[in-house]
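General statements about sequence and structure are easier to judge against a single worked case. When preparing material for the folding task, we compiled for one chain both its residues and its backbone structure tokens. The amino acid sequence and the backbone structure tokens for this protein are reproduced below:
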Amino acid sequence: MTGPKILITGGLGFIGSHLAERLNNLHYQTFVIDKRGSGPGRIDISDPRVIDLVVKVKPQVIFHLAADNRVTAPSRDVLTSNVIGTFNLLEAARKAKVKQFIFTSSAAVYGDPEFLPINEIHPTRPISGYGLSKLVGELYCRNYQDYFPVSIFRFSNVYGPRQESGSEGGVVAIFIDRLLKGQQAVIYGDGRQTRDFIFVADAVEALTLVLDKPQSFTLNIGSGKPTPIGGLFARLAKLMRAEPALIKKPFRPTEIKHSLFDCSLAKKTLGWQPRTKLIQGLYETVNYFTGIQRG
């Protein structure tokens, strides 16, 4: 099928590249904006010139995924990309008269949870500059709902192939990288802190489903199952048949101790639910990184 022209910010990144691949396979027209790319789409979203570029492209749908996702970064550092950049894209969407705007947010907007599992009406009290910037981005999005439907997806910890293993990458990718290199991995705290891990293909499935249901909403997207960080490392070491080596450091105050999503509203709204079990997702992710090392 040939669907509407779709613009993806951050389309060369972890989730964005999977989304672009999925939409291309479904024969949608896609245009990627990413500062790491080349050609006309190579631009930082905080640059006001991005507005003219979007108007020139004339997309009908915008998926806004580009962000500075460093949870431990100072507020000043994430402000430019996550707030100013989001405002630029919303203004561009208004001027281009798009039909639908999709914004990816984060579990970080909730801060330390008052109750588990976290649903969409849980108070939003971010404890990091990143979480605060994402919440401000959400508020700007809601301010544009008179112009076009705005769908906000709050992702839990997304993992999978292509995730960066740098210092601010996802913990799954970091652990796999350390185990492949025979290096020690770092756990901040005692390892009993929990996260809700969602496989990237399931996250992308949620994003694509909204194309058939353009509407304004805020939805949690996660697995609905808690996984201790220490247990995750042990599971990966066993899966990779590697000797686990850990360093434990003091807990970082900008990180929450427990996170677990209630995703029942996503099922009700989009008919979506996670399909990939953690062990299957970890297996696919390990195979990807092993292939890179062998290549």
